[in-house]
Amino acid sequence: MTDDKEGIYKYLRTEKKFPLMWCPGCGNGVVLGSMLRAIDAIGLDKDQVAVVSGIGCSGRASTYVDFNTLHTTHGRALTFATGLKLARPEMTVLVVMGDGDALAIGGNHFIHSARRNMDITAIIYNNYIYGMTGGQFSPTTPLGMVASTARAGNIEASFDIVKLAGAAGASFVARGTTFQVDQLDELMEKAIRKKGFSVVDAITQCPPIYGRYNRLGSATDMLKWQEEHALEVEEAGGLSEEELKGKFLTGVFVDEEKPEYCEEYARLVSRVQEKGEG
Amino acid sequence: PPHWYKPFEDNKTGIPPMANFGEGYRYHITGLTHDEMGFPTSKQDEIKASIERLFRKITLGLKDIQLYEYDMVDDADIVIVAYGCVARTAKQAVRNLRKKGIKVGLLRLITLWPFPGKALEPVIKKAKKLIVPEMNMGQIYREVLRVNAGRKEVVRLGRVDGELITPQEIEEVL
Fold first, then answer.
1. Which of B26, B29, B40 sits opposite A47 (nearest CB)?
2. How large is the ipTM?
3. Which of A171-175, A240-244, A264-268, B164-168 bottoms out in mean pLDDT, i.e. has the lowest?
């Protein structure tokens, strides 16, 4: 049985669904590993963890992990997760989605889940593209980048997941990359421990599709790009606009205490019941 | 025991018992074609078995799924086949026509799909003529024609102007 394996292998369904369908060089494995290391560090009971995923390469992540897993329809992972969390508030519900899944078709559910602030952790595997379907541009594809549906360059401005989640009301928002794995591990652990809606924008590389369309090189080239352009938010404070140009920020952006939905709901129920008896 | 559990295992009814999340049975649910363990598969024999089980599950439950109602069809020469608000109109038309001595009955369809051909069979055998009033371009009429297979006369009464079909309209068709 899997329980006597080492490290993250304890949590992988290796005798069932391996090999993975992810390409060699894909960053998704790193993000998944990071999530598992966080779960290991916290010491959660496998039976009390649920992983709900959407559609796309990131959506396949739920098949590979030994928890209560639910692979849902495109954009609706948060919806299913909301139902699951309400039915089983004591479970740890982790939601794995791609950038297109969470912000395009799932955009509505994303903003309302953040507003509702239910104790769910949303992990967005942000590779700036719709990888599985052949490379269409997504709401996070940067301006000017090439995609199968933007052959001469994307002319749409892209979402900043951190700003969107923060504005919608999430109580914990962070961004990490597949290059700075130690930071990502830390952010994952904080996000899962946080009581409230937590969002982790995990920047990951898609070399065969996004990378190829934009001539970004191999997986290592794309990771190098992350290394050169990621800047921790604490260090950005003292820098000039020139120095900040072209860079993106990582770290924790929002970490607030807000009323959590399931707790508020339980309180509502007991309040109404008391009134009934009075 | 948990490691023996097959969430999508076939059995007589085609309905495998379902464990709840969080009770010690860790399994995978997906919308992709899957095997008995619930994991996605592209193996042809597993996909075929899964689709056939789902089809059998529904077929075995048809008597609970296909709902309909007979109203005075036993001695009817003419039977109106209707559903929804038009069935209400038809009920009134049946009462009006019976008062005039015309033997008319109503088969009210409650479930439209899977189309309850079984409910239609005895009606086709006993009646001489069927009327199908609908507020559309004849979708259920086509199903009635198919089950009828040319045996009896089937008449369509369609109305697509946003207003209800009246009992008088049905009576005039007879």
1. B26
2. 0.87
3. A240-244
Q: Which residues pair with B132 in a beta bridge?
A: B156
- Between CA A124 and CA A120 the distance in angstroms is 13
Strands (E) in chain A, as ranges, are 49-53, 68-71, 92-98, 120-126, 129-130, 136-137, 172-177, 198-203, 230-232, 248-255
* Interface touch B26/A84, C-beta < 8 Å: no
Read off the pLDDT of residues A22-40 as tens digits, 9 standing for 90 and up.
999 999 999 999 999 999 9
Residue A1 has pLDDT above 50, yes or no: no
**Chain A residues closer than 8 Å to B28 by CB:** 62-63, 69-71
Q: Which domains does chain A have, with CATH numbers?
A: 4-275 (3.40.50.970)
Measured between CA atoms, how close is B39 to chain A, in angstroms?
A: 7
Q: Does A50 touch chain B (CB under 8 A)?
A: yes
Q: Do A71 and B24 touch (CB under 8 A)?
A: no
**Residue B29 token pair:** 């649910």
Best to test chain A binding among B4, B8, B26, B41 (most A CBs inside 10 Å): B26
Global pTM reads 0.89
Distances (CA, A) of B121 to A265, B79, B124: 53, 12, 5
Helix (H, G, I), strand (E, B) or coil at A10: helix
Asked if residues A8 and A36 have their Cβ atoms less than 8 Å apart, the reply is yes
Residue B21 forms contact with A (CB below 8 Å):
yes
CA distance A58 to A98: 6
Query: Chains A, B: CB contacts under 8 A, how many?
Result: 48
Cβ count near A276 (within 10 Å): 7
pLDDT in tens, A181-209: 999 999 999 999 999 999 999 999 999 99
